[in-house]
Amino acid sequence: MKYKRVLCLVLAVSFLISGCNKGKTEATDKTDISGVAGQTAASDITTSSQTETTASEPFEFNPHVYSGKIAERIPQDYWDAFYNLCDALRKGEDTFGCSSQEAYNWATDVSVLCDLFPPAGAKIEGKSTDGSPAYENGTGKIHYNMPVEDFLKRESDFEVLITDILNSTIEKDDTEYERALKLYLYVAKNFAYDYSLIENLSNDENYVFACFKEKKGQCVNFASVYAYLLLQAGIDAVSYRIYEDLCHAWTYAVIDGKGYHIDTTWALQADGVDGIYLDYFMMSDKERIADGCTLTDPNVTLLPECSVNKTNVKFDAKDGQYCIRDYCRFVSLDEEKKIVHYTDLYGEPKEFCYGEA
C-alpha cells in the first residue's frame, strides 16, 4: 500500500508536468474564471421548461460519496472505515473506527482522500506521531498537517462550494443524463486549462482541491473534479488515466446503468470560441479510440493496484447512442421534450433526442 501511495502521487505529478494534448478547443488561462460557484451557475443552459431552482429541493453535501465500480474491488468494511474517517475529520477528531490495518491504509490513502474527500488530501495522514501503532484494536489515528481549526474551516468552506455548484447547476428531478450534461457544461464554461498549476502548487496541497479552488488545471485535475461532482450528484464516476501513446486523463461514468467516457478537458470553452463542444460527452470505447486515445492498461488510482489490468474490474463503454460528434456545439437543453439543441460543423442547427418526451 505504501508503494501504491507513492506511485499514484508520482503518476499524478507526471500528468501535471507533461499535460495532455487538447482536441478541438485550445483553452488557455485567458478563459473567464472570475465567476464564483453560485454566481456563474449554468447560465448557458437554456430550457424551454425552466423552473425556479428555489422550488426544487436543494442538494446537501454528501461526505459519503460512493462508486459502485470501485466497490467491485473494495470491500464494504474499507468503505465503512473511510466514512468513519470523513465523519471524524468533519469534527476535527484524531481517531476513527476501522476493521483492519488494510481498511485503515485504504481510507487514509492520499489518492482516496484527494478523489473522494478533497479537502483532506495531503492535509491529513494515517500515522502516529507518538511512536504508538497508527492502527490498533479497531481504532485508527489521524495526523493533521495543519492546525485543526484551519482544517475545519477549509473543509466547511469546501462543503459550501460544492453545494453552491450543485444547486446552481442541477436539480433533484433531473435525469442522470441531464445532471451529467449540466455538470459537463459547468466545468467546460468555468474552468481553464493552465500549465502553471504545478508551478504554483505547494508540496502540501492536492491537485483536486486546488483545481476546485483556482478553477484551472490540467486533464488530471478536470477528470477528478468532474468525477467528484458526478458522485455528489449521485452518479457513479472515477478519474480514468492512460499513459501509452497519449498521456491523458478523463472521467469514466456510469449513467443509467451503462459506462461512458466523458472528457471535460477537451470540452473547455476556449477564449473567443462560441459554444461548448459536445463531442466528448458520453463516448463509447470505439469513439474514444477513434479520437486518438488508446485504452491499453488504464489506471484508476482509487484501486489499490492502480492498473485496471491487474484487477477484475471492467470499465467498458459499449453504448454509443448518446455521443454527438464532429464539432457539435451546445446551444440549449429542452428538458420537457428531452432534446439537446446544437449546431454542427457548418453552424447548422440540429436536434438530438436523448429520451422519451
Quick structural gist:
This protein has 357 residues and is α+β, with helices and mostly antiparallel strands. It has helices spanning 2-18, 68-71, 76-91, 101-107, 110-116, 148-169, 176-190, 197-200, 207-214, 219-232, 285-290, and strands spanning 95-97, 124-125, 135-136, 139-141, 143-144, 192-193, 216-217, 236-242, 248-255, 258-262, 329-334, 339-343, 349-353. The termini are far apart.
Oligomer: single chain
What's the overall average pLDDT, rounded? 85
- Give the number of DSSP strands: 13
Order of helices and strands: HHHEHHEEEEHHEHHEHEEEHEEE
Outline the structure in words.
The chain is α+β, with helices and mostly antiparallel strands and 357 residues long. It folds into two domains: 2-58 and 175-353, no CATH class; 68-151, no CATH class. The chain has eleven helices and 13 strands. A three-stranded antiparallel sheet has the order 1-4-3. A three-stranded antiparallel sheet has the order 8-9-10. It has a three-stranded antiparallel sheet with strand order 11-12-13, with no helix packed on it. A hairpin with a 2-residue loop joins strand 9 and strand 10 (258-262). It is globular, with a radius of gyration of 20 Å. The N and C termini lie far apart (49 Å). Mean pLDDT is 85; it is low at 1-11 and 24-54.
